[in-house]
Structure formats: structure tokens, C-alpha cells
Design a protein that fits this description.
Strand content: 35-45%
Helix content: under 10%
Order of helices and strands: EEEEEEEEEE
Largest sheet: 5 strands, mixed, barrel
Distance between the termini: 39 Å
Oligomer: single chain
Number of helices: 0
Number of strands: 10
Radius of gyration: 13 Å
Length: about 120
């Protein structure tokens, strides 16, 4: 059985309710910072400083802070601060997504999302 939430060592400050990606070594995490990052979950509702343990949720429903306007049903990727924004790939560049919005919201809202990692292909 998989673990929906796993503990990692934060190698940078990880704010609460942000998309996370793997750190430079196994067992570490940092905030996601781009739509092309390998998003692998969402940090829980506690701000974590570098060097501290950080819980990352990988499965199910999570709460995510938004970086812009989002409509329920949109696939979400990361902005430069790990906040959720609509996954909109550019021409020739794929956007990775980490969740599906379960509610609509605006910048800095925290909304429920359904975690699901994947990639949206950019136009040729």
C-alpha cells in the first residue's frame, strides 16, 4: 500500500500548501518553481525552514495555494513560488501538472485539489 504523505528533508524553505519537487538527493524536497518542474506532491499546511523535516502529500486531496485565477476542473502546474496556476504549455514546451482544481479561486486563495501528476503537450 502506498503512503499518501511522506516525510522529506527540506533543502530550501518550503512554504505551506505549495507544489513540491524532489531535491538534489534522495529523501529531500524543495518547492517547485516552474511549469516544467517534476511536481511530485503538495506540502502540508505548515511552513518549513531549510534543514527541517517536510511532509509532502503525494495522493488524494490536498490544499494548494494559488498563484493566479483558477477555475474548477483546470489542471494546475507551479508558478515560480510553488503556487498553483493553470497548466498552459507554450509552443514546443510541455507543462507538467500536479493537480486538478476542485474549486475556483484567485491569487493567494487556498483551494482543495485532487493530486494527479502528468504532462500537457505544447503545440508543435
Amino acid at each position: 500500500m502506498s503512503e499518501p504523505t511522506r516525510n522529506y528533508d527540506a533543502t530550501a524553505d518550503v512554504p505551506a500548501n505549495r507544489f513540491c519537487k524532489p531535491g538534489a538527493s534522495d529523501g529531500t524536497t524543495v518547492p517547485a518553481a516552474a511549469s516544467t518542474d517534476f511536481i511530485f506532491g503538495v506540502s502540508t499546511g505548515i511552513d518549513v525552514s531549510a534543514g527541517e523535516p517536510c511532509d509532502v502529500q503525494h495522493d488524494g486531496r490536498a490544499d494548494l495555494k494559488l498563484g493566479g485565477n483558477v477555475t474548477r476542473g483546470q489542471l494546475l502546474t507551479s508558478d515560480s513560488e510553488g503556487r498553483g496556476v493553470p497548466a498552459a504549455p507554450a509552443a514546443g514546451v510541455n507543462a507538467r501538472h500536479g493537480a486538478l482544481a476542485l474549486e475556483s479561486g484567485v491569487e493567494n486563495d487556498i483551494i482543495p485539489v485532487l493530486l494527479g501528476m502528468g504532462e500537457v503537450q505544447g503545440a508543435a
